[in-house]
Amino acid sequence: MTTTPTVLDGPSGAAPAAPSPADRTPPPPRKRRARPRIGTQAFLLVLMVAFLAPVVWAIVSAFKPANDIIRDPLGFDPGSFTLDNFTAMFHDVPIAHGFLNTAIVLVVKGAITLFFAPLAAYAFAKYDFIGKNVIFGAVLITLMLPTIVLIIPLLLEMKTFGWVNTYQALILPGSVDAFAIFWMRQVISAVPDELLDAARVDGCGEFGIFWRVVVPVIRPGLAGLAVLTIMNIYNDFVWPVVAASSDRMATLQVVLSTLAQNITGNRIGADYATVTGELLAASSLALIPLLVLFIVLQRHFINGILAGSVKG
Predict the structure, then answer these.
(1) Largest CA distance in the chain
(2) Residue 144 buriedness (CB in 10 A; 0-12 / 13-18 / 19+)
(3) Crossing angle of the two packed helices 298-308 and 272-296, in degrees rounded to 10
(4) Among 13, 71, 197, 251, which residue is least crowded by beta carbons within 10 Å?
(5) Residue in 95, 55, 100, 73 with CA at minimum distance from that of residue 263
(6) Residue 234's closest CA among 99, 117, 129?
(7) Is the distance from CB of 279 to CB of 62 less than 8 angstroms?
(8) What's the 3-state SS for 192-212?
(9) Does the pTM of the predicted model rise above 0.85?
């Protein structure tokens, strides 16, 4: 009987052992080639310059002598720095009163929006009732109506109540708008129902569930809505100029729109350079609150935008 010899490798004549799993090192991962971002950064830089250049020019020109703004619009001599435009503007234009009216409307109307819009959105997001989808659809339909279509009916309503040229006319119409309800419904829809059920088991009432459970969870969405609401109220012009036509109730945007007439009416012989200088001074002051607001709440605004993009 013939046997087949076993072929042995290695100096000791033993068969080679299979490599253990620990000795099997994976191949190094391939390095992804970084995509060139120079073009993207250059494009964003151009956009930043395009957006900021007019703002920077307006602020810098507000500190220039009025004649220099017309004579050399793009130049700036630090030695010619002056506050004359601001001093004259405060003397000729009731901008402080416009700031006060805007602040009152902003605080009250913003508080109403941030309280009642999440409540309505909570009902649409977490409760089932007859006609829920029909009512919510009717709310969304109002988003399609242009503001100009609603001015005449709202103005007639304010006249019926005797609210023309009052804070009620500036505050109540549009306090709880469809966009705020839709925004908060999208945010609240992402809140797990298990949290609400656990609160009910613990004996918490329905409003307590909203206030103690839902509100802390949706805080980023509320912050985003707050920024958008403040910007809309602060920049609103069409409704205030119609509902509050008197100088006593004029908001900041209405004061800015009539600034040229106020300057020429309060100062005899005011020329184009004077009007331009004071207009730039007033615009620079009006820009400061929104600029500070966005810088302070930038992180919350971005988080709110992301929270509001959740699919309900």
Answers:
(1) 132
(2) exposed
(3) 70
(4) 13
(5) 95
(6) 99
(7) no
(8) CHHHHHHHHHCCCCHHHHHHH
(9) no
Q: Would you say residue 115 has pLDDT above 90?
A: yes
Q: What b/e string do you get for 203-223 counting C-beta neighbours within 10 Å, with b at 16 or more?
A: ebeeeebbeebbeeebebbbb
Mapped onto helix, strand or coil, the DSSP state of residue 109 is helix
What is the per-residue pLDDT across 154-168, written as a single tens digit (0 to 9) for each? Answer: 999 999 999 999 999
**Total residues found in the chain within this entry:** 312
Q: What is the pLDDT of residues 259-284, one digit of tens each?
A: 766 666 555 556 777 788 888 898 88
What does the block give as tokens for 96? 């402080």
Q: What is the C-alpha end-to-end distance of the chain, expressed in Å? A: 81
Q: Residue 67: which of 259, 271, 310 has the closest Cα?
A: 271
Complete domains list, the chain, with CATH: 93-307 (1.10.3720.10)
